[in-house]
Amino acid sequence: MATSSGARKQSSSMGGAGDRPPQSVKFARRTSSGRVVSLSRDDDLDLPEEYAAQNDYINYTVLMPPTPDNQPGGTSNSTNAAGDKPDGPIPYRAPSTRFRSESQRIRMGSHGGDEDGGSGVAAGKLDRRMSVMKSNNKSMLLRSQTQDFDHNRWLFETKGKYGIGNAFWQQEEDSYDRDTGMSMQDFLDKPWKPLTRKIKIPPEIISPYRLLIMLRMVVLAFFLAWRLRNPNHDAMVLWGLSVTCETWFAFSWLLDILPKFNPINRSADLAALKDKFESPSPTNPNGRSDLPGVDVFISTADPEKEPPLVTSNTILSILAVEYPVEKVAVFISDDGGAILTFEAMAEAVKFGEVWVPFCRKHNIEPRNPDSYFSQKTDPTKNKKRPDFVKDRRWIKREYDEFKVRINGLPEVIRKRCEMYNKNEEMREKKLIREKNDGVLPPDQKVEVTKATWMADGTHWPGTWFKSCADHSKGDHAGILQIMSKMPESDPKMGGPDEGKLDFTGIDTRLPMFAYVSREKRPGYDHNKKAGAMNALVRASAVISNGPFILNLDCDHYIYNSMALREGMCYMMDRGGDRICYIQFPQRFEGIDPSDRYANHNTVFFDGNMRALDGLQGPVYVGTGCMFRRYALYGFLPPRSNEYSGVFGRNKAPAKNIQPQSDEEEPLTGHPELNLPKKFGNSSMFTDSITVAEFQGRPLADHISVKNGRPPGALLAPRPPLDAPTVAEAIAVISCWYEDKSDWGDRVGWIYGSVTEDVVTGYRMHNRGWRSVYCITKRDAFRGTAPINLTDRLHQVLRWATGSVEIFFSRNNAFLATPRLKFLQRVAYLNVGIYPFTSLFLVVYCFLPALSLFTGQFIVQSLNIAFLCYLLIITVVLTLISLLEVKWSGIALEEWWRNEQFWVIGGTSAHLAAVIQGLLKVIAGIEISFTLTSKSANEDEDDIYADLYIVKWTSLFIVPLTIIIVNLVALVMGAARTVYSVIPQWSKLFGGAFFSFWVLAHMYPFCKGLMGRRGKMPTIIYVWAGLISITVSLLWITISPPQGSNSSVSGGELKT
């Protein structure tokens, strides 16, 4: 094998060079005819002109394969000289306690020897290092290493079966000697590769996009100025309302479009991640995984609205994720404390013992069994094992039985509880008879509490079916059950099993899985989902302490088994220590093909979020997000900037960043680490903070990596769980733990809003952290969304109400710190302001009707100036939308559906959110929301049956009024124009076009009211009649008849 001398200048410092015989170094020169001339370094280089060109020689070193005469594993190479140290840092070994904060015990940057005397290399192990002679000339090989193609494979000695230099490559074996395991690949000098890269939008798309935005801003300014200078004196009310609404629309459009100035794409290199963290190296000779741990959080609250089967499938997809098993820990938070969820999770873990190895054996995607077996594609595609069909048939039968057990759990639990309660009643009667000489008094009633029983015959400590003290949803003890223990660090290979699956050579381990239900007591504010997530943060810190946390809803499962690795590429790349979270886009299943109510929301997830990624990062949307644990604890990033001046153009390093004297050590000297007021009074939890911070750093394998950790620091296995650890974990999920601490205020998920996700992400950005948007080729996660109109509007109502709360709180972007970029501040400002657009949108939707009723228009006349402005604004907006569709990858139909639902939601849910938000701020009326039902559709014949169900809600009133008023106005406007002496056709066309624009946006709403077969509920007719009568009376009041003898004659209206 050979390598260039310039590619590895510092390898000459590695041990063993002085004991090895000098290598012969040759120079080679290829002539123009293709002939190769080899010369010794000591030869006379007096050559003809053809060979005399400088810097054209290849300087390389030949390493001979092991032979009886050449044994590089001799005693001279097995040990270093006295005083020498190993090449890399010693692997990380856990201290005697689970978490120790002293830097002396977890110092990872030292280069000490081994316990056997510091030999550094075990005796008899081959020395795989080599010395390369230095050269002043850069070789052609070095210059070629910047390319993607690996030329080393073809330039020098090969791994061919029939001798050195053969072009036939062996596929499975790359060793010279099977016994020694000496591989030629071990000697390749691999260049440092980044794990991720930014992909900018092509200039031919983004430059016109930005230019058109600037053009529309200028045209809007001129148009609004023209509107102010040309009032309609015949209809000042119409003119004033329209100008006010148009000014607000221009302002809200600016808030929405400005953060889109710099959209970017990203890509991750999974091969580089594996090569850097899981390949053999001097610091990791066995090729163990050096990746940091990940704790996965799933939240659920009500098994009736969030079925256990859906949650179980999510759990199974997580247990089968492609990530080192010993580095994954899964926690589910059951905020309802339901025994149904508890026993369903136990069944899921039991089924996972065969499902997870099956997925690993056959590389199954997706690894949610329900989604996998529901696919309409050929299951045998790209499957190479001959036993796949047999295995799939067997696992499908097992899954069907698993579903039967899950669906039958409610009845099983009910019968069990009835049996145990009857036994308790009989035991109580027996005691009474014993006290009364074997006679049961007829007047004495036997009352036994109807308890909920576990399978082992003990009382369930959580919520009972019949609530009572200490056993209700708001009053029960904390529960922590480890259902799958911490796996061993070494793979546990399966074997053949008669009648079942053959898992020979397949790792059968499962990640650790824990069921958690925090303690709830009357008198304590439980803070809903945010409080449950903070309880999981503390419990997981004590048990597993993964430096990264993946947050998923119970109905969002892992669709791409490599999703964790994709996110880890960004966290472990250069500069990854400044990233607080990785947000993945939300993708949904079960949506109707036309996406009537814009459930996919691709304009937001593929447009707005991709644009924010070019600023300080996307917002946190509540699920599908990988957090840095250290950032959740409220600490500042290791490096940050402050922005000042006009539009934040002045950038300077941020102050008050905690200094670190030695970046190779964990951050143990932070002044806030020992404050119980900040994190509570658990010393074990406080000790875990420094460990999580250190383990979450990227590798310090390049001079440009700052605040990194040495390679090989995370090779030691996690310590096993013990009783004191579990007891501490139960203590940190108690209801009183957060008292007089910063949890929910500065630490963890932030309390005080129904949209705690947006507020939590905003707080991190406000401290100077950055976030990343990770769009994978195969969707990372998939979930469900409500396709029913009523459910969809209530979902939008919840989001909009949270935005109103943000606007009236201290989390308003107006009050942000200088560490928040200007355009990022604009984006968060838009998050808090967008619901208020509904006030102007509702008024604007009634304007065409008022125009048709009165025979006037928003302008004096449809003159050339107005039409030109309208045409330019419309054309420019269309071009902007087309370019936005181009760089975001969304379809035009999706863009139009988003526009339609923006009007529907703006005139219904957003308006109600503003009213509710104002009531909360002014009157202190609290807002409560019910969970969105995630139940699977019971109609197997029509998976979209829920789409046609009409559930009346007060949110329908305003959109329905707008539709009816505009329809009535069209008829009245047309009748007036036709029968008038001098028809005002231009005003009719203007009002009619305006009205049709409103009705076109309301089309999905009308279609949703029609139900499955066009049948409209009776309540709709009632409201339509009431609104029609109200509009008629209003019109008579505004424009009463002048006399009682009015008639129509000769096309002229006479009075």
Automatic annotation (TrEMBL):
<feature type="binding site">
    <location>
        <position position="306"/>
    </location>
    <ligand>
        <name>UDP-alpha-D-glucose</name>
    </ligand>
</feature>
<dbReference type="GO" id="GO:0016757">
    <property type="term" value="F:glycosyltransferase activity"/>
</dbReference>
<keyword id="KW-0812">Transmembrane</keyword>
<dbReference type="GO" id="GO:0000139">
    <property type="term" value="C:Golgi membrane"/>
</dbReference>
<feature type="transmembrane region" description="Helical">
    <location>
        <begin position="955"/>
        <end position="982"/>
    </location>
</feature>
<feature type="region of interest" description="Disordered">
    <location>
        <begin position="651"/>
        <end position="673"/>
    </location>
</feature>
<keyword id="KW-0808">Transferase</keyword>
<dbReference type="InterPro" id="IPR005150">
    <property type="entry name" value="Cellulose_synth"/>
</dbReference>
<feature type="binding site">
    <location>
        <position position="529"/>
    </location>
    <ligand>
        <name>Mn(2+)</name>
    </ligand>
</feature>
<keyword id="KW-0328">Glycosyltransferase</keyword>
<keyword id="KW-1133">Transmembrane helix</keyword>
<keyword id="KW-0961">Cell wall biogenesis/degradation</keyword>
<feature type="transmembrane region" description="Helical">
    <location>
        <begin position="207"/>
        <end position="226"/>
    </location>
</feature>
<feature type="compositionally biased region" description="Polar residues">
    <location>
        <begin position="70"/>
        <end position="81"/>
    </location>
</feature>
<feature type="transmembrane region" description="Helical">
    <location>
        <begin position="827"/>
        <end position="850"/>
    </location>
</feature>
<comment type="function">
    <text>Thought to be a Golgi-localized beta-glycan synthase that polymerize the backbones of noncellulosic polysaccharides (hemicelluloses) of plant cell wall.</text>
</comment>
<dbReference type="GO" id="GO:0071555">
    <property type="term" value="P:cell wall organization"/>
</dbReference>
<feature type="transmembrane region" description="Helical">
    <location>
        <begin position="1018"/>
        <end position="1038"/>
    </location>
</feature>
<feature type="binding site">
    <location>
        <position position="335"/>
    </location>
    <ligand>
        <name>UDP-alpha-D-glucose</name>
    </ligand>
</feature>
<keyword id="KW-0333">Golgi apparatus</keyword>
<feature type="active site">
    <location>
        <position position="757"/>
    </location>
</feature>
<dbReference type="Pfam" id="PF03552">
    <property type="entry name" value="Cellulose_synt"/>
</dbReference>
<dbReference type="InterPro" id="IPR029044">
    <property type="entry name" value="Nucleotide-diphossugar_trans"/>
</dbReference>
<feature type="transmembrane region" description="Helical">
    <location>
        <begin position="988"/>
        <end position="1006"/>
    </location>
</feature>
<feature type="transmembrane region" description="Helical">
    <location>
        <begin position="862"/>
        <end position="883"/>
    </location>
</feature>
<feature type="active site">
    <location>
        <position position="335"/>
    </location>
</feature>
<feature type="transmembrane region" description="Helical">
    <location>
        <begin position="238"/>
        <end position="258"/>
    </location>
</feature>
<protein>
    <submittedName>
        <fullName>Cellulose synthase-like protein D1</fullName>
    </submittedName>
</protein>
<feature type="compositionally biased region" description="Polar residues">
    <location>
        <begin position="1"/>
        <end position="14"/>
    </location>
</feature>
<feature type="binding site">
    <location>
        <position position="553"/>
    </location>
    <ligand>
        <name>Mn(2+)</name>
    </ligand>
</feature>
<feature type="binding site">
    <location>
        <position position="305"/>
    </location>
    <ligand>
        <name>UDP-alpha-D-glucose</name>
    </ligand>
</feature>
<keyword id="KW-0472">Membrane</keyword>
<comment type="similarity">
    <text>Belongs to the glycosyltransferase 2 family. Plant cellulose synthase-like D subfamily.</text>
</comment>
<feature type="binding site">
    <location>
        <position position="299"/>
    </location>
    <ligand>
        <name>UDP-alpha-D-glucose</name>
    </ligand>
</feature>
<feature type="binding site">
    <location>
        <position position="528"/>
    </location>
    <ligand>
        <name>UDP-alpha-D-glucose</name>
    </ligand>
</feature>
<feature type="region of interest" description="Disordered">
    <location>
        <begin position="1"/>
        <end position="122"/>
    </location>
</feature>
